[in-house]
Each structure stands twice: as C-alpha cells, then as structure tokens.
Design goal:
Length: 456
C-alpha cells in the first residue's frame, strides 16, 4: 500500500498565495500596446522549445496564449507533459492523490455511490483524464477490489485518457505491474492495453472520442487546469486578446502583447455581460465538457471534476511551477508546468441543460461530506507506527485545511438528469399519463460529497 509522504511545503497551494501580476501596463499608452512579462529570467535561447516557438512567431506573428500553452505542455516531441514525470516531491508540483491515499479511497466510494444511484448498471467504465502517476486510479481500484461484493459482478473496465507516453508508462507500471502492451502502430486510438493488478481490463487513449460509449464515471483531477487558455483584456476600444511575441529589444526573450485588432477568439469567447477587465477562457475545456455532457445524457453516468477553480470571478490565474515554486510563464518554456484556475461558471454554461450540474464545493466540504474524518480515525486506529500516523494526519491537514488545499480546490459534478429524480409514474395504456398518484418510487440517493448526507 502506498504510504503518505512528508510533504509540508511541497504543494502547489503552499507556494502560491496569489498569481503573478502579468498585466502591469495599461492599454492607454497609444504607441505601446505591448508589455513585458514580469520576470527578468531569460527563456534560454538554446532551449529547443524556445527555438520552436520563436520560429513559429517569426513565420506567422504573435501566437495566442492558448497556442503557447498547448505547444509548451503537449507538443508531441518536446512538450512538458510528453517528456517529464513532473509529479511528487522531486518534481515540479504535488497533487492530492500523491499526498494521501485517503483522497483516492473516498473518490472510489464516490464512484461506487454514483453507480448505485444509477441503478447498478451491469457494465461500468471508470474513465480518468490525465491520470498523472496513476495513484488516484490505483487507490480507487483498491476500493473496488475490497468492495467487490458490493459491485455484484458488474463488468468493470478502466479507461485512461493520457497525452503523455512517458506518464502512460508510469501509470501502466503502477496499475498493471508489467501486464500491459503498447499498440503496434502509433495511430491506434487505443495506444496501450492491459490488465490491472486487480484483474480489470485497462486501456489508454489520447482523446475522449476514442473511449467506448456506455455507462461511465468520468474523473478529471487537476486535468482541466492544464488545458490551454486564451487571455483577454478589456480596453477602451473593446476586448483585445493577449498574445505571446518575441521581445524586439531582446530576441532571446518572449513577452506578452495586446494585439491591436480583435481576433476570432476575442469576438467569440467573451460573455456580453462580462464585468472583469482581464479574462481567461479555456475553450478546449468547454468542448470536453460538452462531449461529456452528451455522453452522460445518452449513456448514463457522471463526471467529477476537481481542480483549483472559481465561479467566474477570478482574473490573472495563469502561472508556472518549477521545483514547487512559482515560475515565470514565459521563461525556459517546456521546463515548467503551466496552469490556470478552472472557471466552473464557464464549464456549467458549456454543459447547458443536457446534464444536472452540482458544485463547485470546496475540497474540505466535499471530503468531509465523504467521511474523511471517519476514514482517518479508522486508519489511525489500525496504525501503530508514529511516523506513518504523523504522515496521515499531515496529509489530512494538507487536503482539508482552508489555508492549504481545503478552500481553493473545488469539486464539480455533472449527472444524468434521471439521477436526481424519482422514477416516473407508470404510463397508462395509449401513452397517456395516469392521474397524479403519490410518487411511490424511492427518493433518489443523495449525491455523495455534495451534501452532508454523504457516505460517512
Ligand atoms: N491527475 C493527476 C495528474 C495531474 S497533471 C494528479 O492529480 O495527480 C495533468 C495530467 O494531465 C498529466 O497526466 C498530463 O500528462 C495530462 N494531460 C495534460 N494535458 C492533456 C491533454 N490535452 N490530453 C490528455 N492528457 C493531458
């Protein structure tokens, strides 16, 4: 069993009380629509990602922040995620599943609870986006294995959407030992397949579209924050997009500029009633949410999205992390993680009425509703080793303390509408509804984690 490591000082949130002020100059300086990133650090002109980006910019002009982020993080040859295993104390940032096993265990209970709430369908796909080192899935699958009886013979399969070949290897090692094989051709939609150590079929994909249809519980933990954002600034001439350009005074450096004319993105992505002057929008996240909503509506299931986030209120959250410290987003591109808080109000809007949405609720509330206090007590009761006990308590504090990950980290869910309604009264012959009768069906189970009636 994975044990909790001593991680004080290593979480993203501890080193990030606020975002760096990227927007330091105002648009009103007529000749100077351009402004620099806040850091003095140079982006290492020898760096191949830097060369790749500058040749792109030289060829076509400034690139959007979204294109910059996409290239830096997921370029198939030199992207940060494609090249690195960046998680954990020796990497650039640490995440909740890496901090404490309890986190994944409670999410495992959440998945089971939603499967039960949906009437225990006989086939059940667990789909995880961006599984990192595989720790979350591993903890969930341990719960499934321990509660095999509750699953009552349902055919469970595991599906991972992961862009990084490097991380997919780490995941495969964690989840299958050596029981997985890569596909013969790189173009296969399923690029790796195997059997988990708990005996379930497991497959890896690059895109959601390749995951088979069917009842699924979708999990995305610290995934949406890694998707590319567009950045906009309100000016006296209207909304303008912020882009990445080469600094003409120092060609070894990149800088952020406000482009003078509207772009397709600046005309399409800003809400008419937007009040903020700096806005970040993640259209790729919106598209994934729409696809998830359609699948959940048609096939049944639920999605749980957990990330640093806000409800359409924050500005300037785009930031970099390297070695557990904030890092200039434009310096040494490809050597640091890039991230932006998730705008849950945008995701809710993109999901529309296709599904029922709940949240965001804070990580502290979600985990407490899921019974984290009880689970901690059980583990402590069964553990005599003082250092493991201290680590369990420290992990609990990191996850739930409002000053650490408890408040800023938030949970949001999308559910099939039937999940929240009582069964319909029976239809009379000829398709006519019978006269109103007291609804007899059992009340739907509460959605664990989002109300106090969770499975504690
Ligand atoms: N969920 C894990 C890892 C978070 S890091 C945890 O909480 O520990 C982000 C993960 O998303 C990595 O596995 C990264 O390779 C993956 N990822 C980033 N962009 C992606 C994309 N566009 N498609 C699929 N996976 C992506």
């Amino acid at each position: 069993m994975r044990t909790v490591r001593a991680l004080q000082g290593l979480s993203r949130v501890l080193v990030c009380p606020c975002s760096p002020p990227l927007f330091v100059r105002s648009w009103s300086v007529a000749q100077s629509q351009r402004f620099s990133s806040s850091s003095a650090e140079k982006p290492m002109p020898g760096n191949s990602m830097f060369r790749h980006l500058t040749s792109k910019i030289k060829a076509t002009g400034p690139i959007s922040v979204a294109e910059y982020m996409r290239e830096v993080l997921t370029n198939p040859v030199m992207g940060y995620y494609v090249q690195n295993d960046m998680l954990g104390p020796d990497g650039d940032f640490i995440t909740s599943p890496e901090i404490s096993q309890i986190f994944g265990e409670l999410l495992g209970i959440w998945c089971l609870s939603e499967w039960m709430g949906a009437g225990k369908p006989s086939r059940f796909q667990l789909v995880e986006f961006g599984p990192g080192r595989g720790s979350l899935a591993n903890d969930i699958l341990r719960v499934f294995s321990q509660l095999r009886g509750a699953l009552g013979g349902a055919a469970v399969s595991v599906h991972l959407v992961e862009v990084s070949p490097k991380l997919s290897q780490v995941q495969a090692q964690c989840l299958t030992g050596d029981q997985s094989q890569v596909s013969a051709s790189e173009d296969e939609p399923v690029y790796r397949q195997g059997t988990t150590t708990t005996g379930l079929p497991i497959s890896w994909y690059r895109n959601l579209d390749d995951v088979p249809r069917g009842f699924s519980i979708y999990l995305a933990h610290e995934f949406f924050d890694a998707l590319p954002i567009h950045m906009f600034q309100g000016t006296e001439k209207g909304w303008r997009e912020v882009m990445v350009d080469i600094d003409p005074d120092d060609p070894g450096k990149l800088r952020l500029v406000i482009v003078p004319a509207p772009t397709l993105a600046s005309t399409q992505l800003i809400q008419a009633d937007e009040k903020r002057r700096h806005v970040e929008v993640c259209p790729e996240g919106g598209v994934i949410v729409q696809r998830l909503a359609n699948r959940i509506a048609e096939d049944g299931g639920a999605a749980l999205i957990a990330d640093y986030g806000h409800d359409g209120t924050k500005t300037d959250t785009f930031r970099g992390f390297k070695g557990h410290k904030l890092h200039d987003v434009l310096a040494s591109p490809g050597s640091a993680d890039l991230t932006a808080d998730v705008d849950y109000s945008y995701l809710r809007r993109m999901a529309g009425a296709t599904v029922a949405c709940m949240g965001p609720v804070s990580q502290k509330d979600f985990l407490k509703n899921m019974g984290i206090d009880t689970r901690l007590q059980v583990l402590l009761r069964n553990c005599a080793d003082p250092s493991t006990r201290a680590q369990l308590i420290q992990g609990y504090d990191m996850l739930t303390n409002p000053l650490k990950m408890g408040e800023r980290f938030q949970f949001f869910t999308m559910l099939n509408h039937s999940r929240l309604t009582r069964p319909e009264p029976e239809q009379a012959k000829g398709g006519k509804k019978m006269a109103p009768v007291p609804k007899k069906g059992p009340a739907p189970l509460p959605v664990a984690g989002f109300s106090e009636l969770g499975l504690s």
